[in-house]
Structure formats: C-alpha cells, structure tokens
Amino acid sequence: MGCSEDTPVKPNNQNQDAKKSNSNKPNSKWKIIFVLGEPGGGKNTQCDLIEEKYQIIHFSCGDLLRDAVKENIPEAEEIKNYMKEGKIVPAEVTCGLQKKFMQKNGDNYKFYLCDGFPRNEENLKGFQKTFGDEIEICGVLYIKCDEEVCLERIKARAEGSTEKRIDDNVETIRKRFRVMREETLPNLENFKKFTKVWMIDANKTKEEVFKQIDEVLKDVLEKRTTPL
Fold first, then answer.
1. Average pLDDT over residues 179-201
2. Nearest to 117 by CA among 138, 133, 141
3. CA distances, 118 to each of 7, 36, 199 (Å)
4. What's the confidence (pLDDT) of residue 109?
5. 37: closest CA among 115, 111, 144, 134?
6. Bridge partners of residue 139, in order along the sequence
7. pLDDT of residue 7
8. Which residues does 74 contact at the CB level (< 8 Å), separation at least 6?
9. Nearest to 55 by CA among 5, 11, 108
C-alpha cells in the first residue's frame, strides 16, 4: 500500500483561477502521512515546517477535537471528558471530524499531514472504516522524545500561551504517556504490514529534528508534483 506519485501540490495564490476551473475534474484519492509521538515532543512544530517546505496541509487531531469542544457540537462533553482523562477519543468521533475537515478543502488539496492520530488499533480500524478506498496511507512518522524533555517543553508552552489547553497538565500528560507505551507504540506493528514507519529522535533542536524528517520524507513528497 505504497504512496503513488500523482498527487497534486497545494496550490499557491497564483493558481486560484486554475483551481476553480478544475474543481469538477475527477482526482486521485486523498493521501496522508500520520505523525505520532509523545505529548510535547514537537509534532506540531515539525508538521508546520514540513507544511511550509512541501506545501501540503497539516492538521492536528487534538486541535480538531478542542475546536469541536469550543463549538459545542453534540459530542463536545464526551470529547472533553476523554481529553481531561488523557484517554483516546472514540474513532468514529475523531474520524468524522477529520473527514469533515478534508471535505471542506475539496478536491484541490489531496495530500495531508495528520498529527496525533491514530493512537491505537481501534483508531486505525475506525479510520479505515470511515475512509475506505478514498484515502491512501503513505507512511507514519514517529517523533520519539524522552518524557522529561516533553514535560519541560509542555511547561514552556503553557507559560507562553494565553489559552490553557484541556490536556495541558502533568496528571493528564502522564496518563497520555502511559497510553503511548501501552497502545500507540504496539500499533506501529500494524502499520508496518502495509506502509513505511519512520522513527525520529526528537531529543534535539527543532532544526536537527527537521533535518532527520526531511531525509526520510523528501522522496515521498518531492515526487507528488503533478498539477491539477
């Protein structure tokens, strides 16, 4: 289940007219790279760097869930309770938000970078059930970072933010680390059966981490340059 090379790049502003004129043309399936790792390990930072260089769309499942709570969707209280406890939100909820996000971008955006998902086998099965043949998984980046380093980064993030996240407290973070060890890491073996898994050492500066990531992703991302 490798990633083919016919995915269009994310258009820039100069391509808006072309994008509109081609909006009804049939396109290849969506493609996605998952980014996993410990809370505070730098997933969001690295995804932003990848998005900037390769012009693909990055979205965070955690952000989708937090936005859903703010918007008070019917599942908002359920989501909030799961996140407070450091537990994994049911796949049908998370995958529904993912699909809504991708559909909103339309057929002109075909390559996505999704961070914070899937965190266990149930998430993966839910994703496959929700998307079926509409999407192709091109690989999984696992950004591995020591627990104490992550906690320091989370502390710095919280001090520098004016908005407190539901899950940004030591008790919840410790629970999330346990989930990573018990459910997320074992789930990587399921991915290895049909796609690539890249392990990245994130106990370094963001520039050093990105250099590692760029080395493993450039072959996949530089090839998907066919325009709409």
1. 94
2. 141
3. 22, 8, 16
4. 73
5. 144
6. 33
7. 43
8. none
9. 11
| Structure tokens that stand for 51 in this block | 């998005």
Cα separation of the two ends of the chain: 23
pLDDT exceeds 80 at position 216 = yes
For 29-222, CATH number?
Answer: 3.40.50.300
Is a pLDDT exceeding 50 seen at residue 11? no
Residues 115 and 78: their CA atoms lie apart, in Å, by 21
* Domain positions in the chain: 29-222
Interval 213-217 mean pLDDT: 95
Give the up-direction half-sphere exposure of residue 1: CA atoms within 13 A in the CB hemisphere.
Answer: 21
Q: Under 8 Å CB-to-CB from 63, ≥6 apart: which residues?
A: none
Q: What is the pLDDT of residues 53-93, one digit of tens each?
A: 998 899 999 999 999 999 999 999 999 999 988 899 999 99
Task: Give the Cα separation of 198 and 161 in Å (integer).
Answer: 31
- Specify the residue for token string 């410790």: 174
Longest dimension (CA), the chain: 51
CA atoms within 13 A on the CB side of 186: 9
Render 58-112 in DSSP notation, one character per residue.
Answer: EEEHHHHHHHHHHTT-TTHHHHHHHHHTTPPPPHHHHHHHHHHHHHHH-TT--EE
